[in-house]
Write a structure and sequence with these properties.
mainly alpha; G3P_acylTferase_PlsY; 0% strand; phospholipid biosynthesis
Length: 208
């Protein structure tokens, strides 16, 4: 039996959420070092924390799979369900939500940067590439999280005034907001981690 239009949208969003929920950071950290990435470093189950705390190979794999799951969700929605435009963006957004609030991690998750980036790249590659170039330029003179936040804001301005009509704004603004919130949260986590390392170093020096 062929699915109705609204049923395709529901199925697409559900598939997007499930794919986004797969915690590849946790999976690869366990496989490579039997480490629970949620308990080390910034405690964020994302590619950057895996790269720092577990290694380059699992970090790269995490990044590839986290980006891939957002794109895979949208490809499925287009080719198998016949969705287009606004609804494909909805499926991509569902994948980002799944990454940030994974059903497999009791509705906790990563910051969604890799998955959000992949979704935005799929939707508007030219603007995404401009934003990425800007990000790396800013990162040379500013902290990484600040660079992410500024890039997200610039991307949003581009979406509003250049690329998409009004009916895309709500979903895409939501994705950009997730990026910004994730960057701020990661900044706080990095600050806490540096503070813990500083205290550990002080205790080590005091023991001599």
């Amino acid at each position: 039996m062929e699915l109705l239009g609204w049923q395709k949208i529901v199925v697409g969003a559900f598939v997007g959420y499930l794919l986004g929920s797969v915690p590849f950071a946790v999976v690869f950290s366990r496989l490579f070092k039997n480490v629970d990435i949620r308990r080390v470093g910034t405690k964020n189950p994302g590619a950057a924390n895996v790269f720092r705390e577990v290694g380059a190979t699992p970090g790269l794999l995490t990044w590839l799979f986290d980006t891939g799951k957002g794109v895979a969700a949208m490809i499925v929605s287009e080719r198998w369900l016949g969705l287009s435009g606004y609804w494909v963006a909805l499926v991509g957004s569902a994948a980002v939500v799944g990454h940030c609030w994974s059903i497999f991690l009791l509705f906790k998750g990563g910051k969604g940067l890799a998955t959000s980036g992949a979704v935005l790249l799929y939707l508007t590659p030219k603007l995404f590439l401009i934003a990425i170039a800007l990000h790396f330029y800013i990162q040379k003179v500013a902290p990484r999280s600040l660079a992410v936040l500024i890039t997200a804001m610039v991307f949003f301005v581009g979406l509003v005034y250049i690329v998409y009509p009004q009916n895309w704004l709500t979903l895409l603004a939501g994705i950009v907001t997730l990026i910004g919130v994730g960057a701020l949260a990661n900044t706080e986590a990095m600050r806490e981690m540096r503070e813990l390392r500083r205290k550990a170093k002080e205790l080590e020096e005091a023991s001599y």
